[in-house]
Amino acid sequence: MTRRLSTRTRLLALAPPLALVLASCAPGGTDSSGDPVEDDDGGTAGEATASVQELTREDVEGGSLNYLYFTDGPDQASTEELISAFEEEYGVTVNLEIVPFSDLETTLQTRLSGGQAPDVARITATAPFEGDLLDLTPYVGADYPETFIEGLRAPMQQGDQLVAVPSDLTMNGPFVNVEQFQEAGVDLPDPEDPWTWEEMMEAAASVQEAVGTEFAFALDKSGHRLSTVLSQNGTYLVDAETGVLDPDLATEALQALTSMIEDGSSPRDFWLDSGTRYAGANEVFLAQQVPVYLSGNWQVAQFEANAPFEWAAAPNPCMTECGGFPGGKFMAGFADTDEPELTALFLWWMNDTEQQRQFVDASNFLPTRADLVEDGVEYASRSEDMNVFLEDIPRTPEAAYASAYSPEFGAAATEFVEFYAQVVAGQLELPEAMEDLSSTLGD
C-alpha cells in the first residue's frame, strides 16, 4: 500500500532499513588525493567530457524519471532537496519511490522481469543487476571514474561499461569515551599519528582498570567490522591478489580481540546469540561500559543525539596496514529507460562537487569524489569527528575496497561470523577456525 509524502515522493513501505548497517553498513584507495591532470584539450580528466555537461534546460525540459531509493534516515530530506533543485534547474520531474533496504533487490528484480524497471536506483552493488544497467560512458566520458577515489573506480564498471556512480561512502573506525580517558589520565590518540593495535589495547585496558568499566574494547558482531581487523594485517575474505584468505595473517590479526573476549574485557555473549545476524555494541558504549568501540561513521549522528558524555572519533589502529574498511552506495541507471540522456544527466548532477558536498554534510556520510576527499568537508555537525573518518580514506588499502565491493563479500562475511562465533564459544581454536574458513571460502 502506498501513501503520498509529497507531490513527488511515494512511500512503498515503512520497514526500517536496519540491514543497511550490515552492508555498510552497510557500504577510496591508497592514493586518492592526487591532483587532476589535464587532458589533451586542456580540460580536467575526470570531469564529464561528453554530452551531459553541455545539456541545457531546453534539451531535457518536460522529461520525467522514476528514482527507486532506500534511506538511512537523514539522507532522505537532503535527497529531496537536491531533486527539487534539479527539477527547477532543468524543468523535469523526478518521482522518488522509497522502499526498505530489505526489499530493494527483490523489488528491482521483480520490476526488471516485468519490464517495469525504474530509470534510476540507489544500490549497494552492481553485480545483481549485471546486463541490466545503463552504460554511462557515452554521456559522461571514459575518464569520468577518475573523478572518484581510486578504490571506487573498479566497482563503478562492469567489463568495459561504466554502470554506476558512487554517491556516498562509509568507513569503519573507533570511538572513544573522552571523559573516561581523561579521568584515567590516558592520552587520546593523535588523528595524524594512529595507534598501533597494541597501543590501542593497552590504552583501553588502562582506562577500564582506572574507571571500572565492564569492558575495555568492543566492536559490532559483523563480518564487515571484523574485516577491518583483517585488513589492518593485510588479508581479506575476498582477496583480489591471492584469491583466498591467509589463515596465518587472519589468526595473527584476530588474536588480540580473541584474548580480550576470553578474559572478559570485550563482550562475549552477543557472539553466541542470534546466529550470524548483525548485533551492534553501540548500546554498551552509550551506557559507558566500554571506553573504545569500533563501529563506523554512521554512529556519529546517534551519538551526538544520545550520548550523555563527551566522546570522539579516533583514527583506525595499524598493524602492517592502517585505515578502516569501507562500505557505501551507488546510483545507477537502467538500460531500458526511455530517458537515457536525462538519466545520465541526473546521475552526473547529483554527484557533482557541490551537490555531493551538500548530501554528505546533511547525511553524515563520507564523500566519494577525489576532490572532496582531498579538500575535506566542513560538516554542520561533528565536523572534526567526521573528518577523522575522512582522513582514514586514503590510509585504507585499495585491496580493502576491492574486497568490500566484491560480489562474494556478503556471503563470505556471514561465514566469517559463523566461524568466529565458534571460536568465542570454545568449539574451535582460532588457527583452526581460520584454516577452515579459508578452505570454505576457497571452495
UniProtKB/TrEMBL annotation:
It comes from the Bacteria. Residues 1-26 form the signal peptide. This is Extracellular solute-binding protein. Residues 26-47 are annotated as: Disordered. It is found in: Cell envelope. It comes from Ornithinimicrobium pratense. Its main location: other. PROSITE patterns: PROKAR_LIPOPROTEIN. InterPro entries: Bact_solute-bd_prot1 (IPR050490), SBP (IPR006059).
